[in-house]
Design goal:
This protein has 638 residues and is an alpha+beta fold. It is built from 20 helices and 23 strands. It is 40% helix and 24% strand. Strands 8-10-11-13-12 form a 5-stranded mixed β-sheet, with helices on one face.
Amino acid sequence: MEMSRYRNLFLAETREHLHTMNQLVDGLEREPERDETINALFREAHSIKGMAAAMQFTQTAAVAHHLEHYLGEIRSCSRVPPDVRGRLLDGIDLLEGLLDDIVSGRPERNVEKFLQKTATCSGQSGQDMAIVTNVDCTAQNSASQEPADSILSSASAGDHSEEFQVIIDLVNAPKSANPGLKILQRLEEMGEILSSEAVVDSIRQGGEPRQVKLWLRSGIAPDKLKSKLLTIEGIGRVGFAQDRRKKPGDDQIATVRVSTDRLDNLLSIVGELLTNHYLLQTAAESENWTEIPAQLILMDRLVENLRHEVIQARMVPFQTITGRLPKAIRDISRKSGKNVTLNLIGEDLGVDRVVLEQLGDSLLHLVRNAVDHGIVSQGTLTIEARREKEQILIEVSDDGRGMSPEQIKKTAIAQGLLAANQAGKLSDREALMLICQPGFSTAQGVTETSGRGVGMDVVKSSVERLGGTLAVSSALDRGTRVQMSVPLSTAIVKVLLVACARQRLAIPITRVVRTFALPSAMINRREEPHVFVHEGRTVPLYSLAELLSLARTENTKKALIVLAEVQGGLVGLQVDSLIGQREVFVKPLHFPLDKLPGLSGVTVEGAGIIFVLEPQSLVENRLMLADKAGWKPESSTF
């Protein structure tokens, strides 16, 4: 039977089972005597085994069968052995790694080392009791498998491993040194070589290239990799590049589960739309103009209902991305020697699938930072999701040491990210946002989870890419809170249409505070940028035409202002005219337009295409180009 067409369904179903197993293991940790938890884990492992065996993924089936048998043995014990949780988590990690192999088209990794271990009711290690007699676990194409010794280590590294390109320049060296082969050997000791150029094959055949480029997955920090490589004679320079390749599964079809009731509702609405279309067509052909307004009102209602149902169909529970957090926190806590309690609120909240996919890594960054930097020895980490109007608010807070705005300023100055005269003009809120600057880090050293100057800038970029905002608040010895505010949906959004230099442009309503006409006399044009006072606050004013490098028009009597919120501060955007609000379908931009700062998408109207703007990126780009050292608006985050 041809099984490839069922591959995506198998992957989706198996990941759901693994997600459930992770949650169950967390419950087992809280209630170790709960027999039903063991029974539920047994059923999940049994389901994975059956599906994997049907798809002929033998290694995956072997691990699932091992866990199933292991849980069966534990079920007969008088009490749960102390090492069960670690054993189950290792197995779940290994199954997730096997799924990655399947997604990437690689042969499944060898799992024999994992299968050789088991535990008795007393918790002492014992021999595996013919657990895999019904499954063929023979290694497939061993040359392409991961080394057996690295299976569990790679699983334990889990989310801490990174993929990047290593670029090594070679200099003249004695032939006896053979730097090429030594480089490959050293890299294989420190990680997994994922892919490489033909030059690597040439090295294995005795060639002497001038440069080596290859992709590496490793849990070791790049600076440590570099120091170890430079000990090899013949290496002149070692550099690294971020992994911008297509990730495993990027070409897979993303799926969500939709209830049959919702599908029935969608079909019913489409049927009514077809009827409405027929009635409108008939009225137009017979020139019955009095009938058309009523039919248009009906169409408006049907389109609104259709929009609501489609958005709801895209919703998935917030727990879709929080399910892996308990395990991640356990891993980080164990390595750092801290005792961290996780408190999850709002896991059942429905969030757009695209939003969750974008925020998954960001949430993990925040969790790592909270455990590594915030909590001292023990504490509580709270993750809460809630809805406020058309926004989803996700808060990550801890009760740890907190952050000092003054210390952050000093660190930013020492790292060359801020001038001393600029630091003196920053408010505490603005100083806290400096942690989102690329390269900023307060870590005393590099660990597996932090200290490399990456993380918060990635979080900020991800949130802004969704059209959201990021806010940070903290107090010494009271903890830190990071709030991500993102739109309920990224596909259909409400926007304010404006005209600027004869161009129609859209600004997301979530960014707009208010609009008003300001007499020109109230604008201080001696400052750069221009400023005005709004409700006692000094607000910078920018011409939207200038920000977009369009021809600017001046109104000597008054200026039409769109007051926008940027990182909690206010910015005025001067436009030529206000057109009104619309609910639009936003399409993503593709290369090269996606590289232009300030553009988040595009929508289409009868008059043509309309670009959707991102005010924060526009203003940040302007400040970067202007490079106005020493100027800081009082109420802005810039």
